[in-house]
DNA sequence: CGCAAATCGGAACGAATCAGTCCAATTTGC
DNA sequence: GCAAATTGGACTGATTCGTTCCGATTTGCG
């Protein structure tokens, strides 16, 4: 019940990138300096984010990163899924690895729980995270 | 965004124990045979469950396990917290390990997300998991 | 009253995933 | 054409998770 540090970093990085979205492209080193995350780690997170088409990357001198979509259209659920894969609490949903399988009475109920969690995370968008005065 | 196998097993074990709750005590080996989980693993999960006062254990010959509370009063959130610790997506909530600390604009919003997730899990009780006909 | 069986509890080992770091490929600007 | 800058992927080390085994405790029976 605790997401990995990579996903945590991804949220912080996306939040920092949303501020520079209007200014165009931002380099990975710039994001590392602003977030305090080690530069190589930022690169790793960014690579996953671009792979999930959440960010757009421009290579070469003067290149950098920028959000692929408006900040309002990106939710925490999207970022978490991009870094940690699909939001599924149990592995038995995808493949039949559980020995019980047919006799497991709990199995049919997991999708309901997964949807509840995903919905809770989908309600949080990047704009709501940048609004620092809306905490209380 | 995926809970550990231990927590998954804990939910299945608690669900299996709830059926034997009326019959009194159940041995760990019995639960292992019904759930298909390796017996030693069941013991480990049970030890954590009893430590969290979710189950009551009786040692000695003829002993066994039983639910400490009615099944309706136990939620998935309780079981997950018992096995995996408090439901907190990020570690920065408890201790100041993040270098940003004061400048992190995302930090104040995590409790809201954590509460949303915990609420989603708290709505699922053991009785709702045993009701197999209420899936759809 | 002593013995034996059965059970829970904790500790140790191995494996897998995760976090962090480094180097190579590519592209733009001069 | 050259050089600088940046992304992308691959490797190493560490932490945590999962599994297994052994010991301590308690009850039932002879």
Descriptive notes:
- Two copies of one chain form a homodimer.
- The mean pLDDT of chain A is 81.
- Chain A has a two-stranded antiparallel ribbon with strand order 1-2.
- Chain A has a domain at 5-85 and 125-134: Arc Repressor Mutant, subunit A, CATH 1.10.10.10.
- With 136 residues, chain A is mainly alpha-helical.
- In chain A, helix 1 crosses helix 3, helix 1 (5-19) crosses helix 4 and helix 2 crosses helix 3.
- Chain A is built from six helices and two strands.
- Chain A has helices at 5-19, 28-35, 39-51, 76-84, 110-122, 126-130, and strands at 55-58, 64-67.
- Chains A and B meet through helix 1, helix 4, helix 5 and helix 6 of A and helix 1, helix 4, helix 5 and helix 6 of B.
- The first copy, chain A, binds a DNA duplex (30 and 30 nucleotides) through residues 4-6, 27-29, 38, 40-41, 43-44, 46-47, 50, 57-65.
């Amino acid at each position: 019940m605790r997401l990995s540090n990579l996903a945590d970093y991804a949220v912080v990085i996306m939040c920092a990138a949303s501020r520079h979205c209007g200014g165009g492209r931002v380099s990975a080193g710039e994001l590392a300096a602003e977030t305090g995350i080690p530069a190589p780690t930022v690169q790793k997170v960014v690579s996953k984010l671009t792979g999930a088409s959440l960010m757009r990357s421009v290579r070469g001198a003067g290149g950098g990163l920028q959000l692929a979509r408006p900040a309002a259209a990106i939710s925490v659920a999207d970022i978490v899924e991009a870094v940690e894969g699909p939001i599924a609490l149990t592995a038995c949903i995808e493949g039949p690895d559980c020995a019980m399988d047919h006799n497991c009475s709990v199995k049919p109920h997991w999708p309901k729980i997964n949807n509840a969690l995903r919905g809770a995370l989908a309600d949080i968008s990047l704009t709501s995270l940048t609004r620092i005065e809306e905490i209380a």
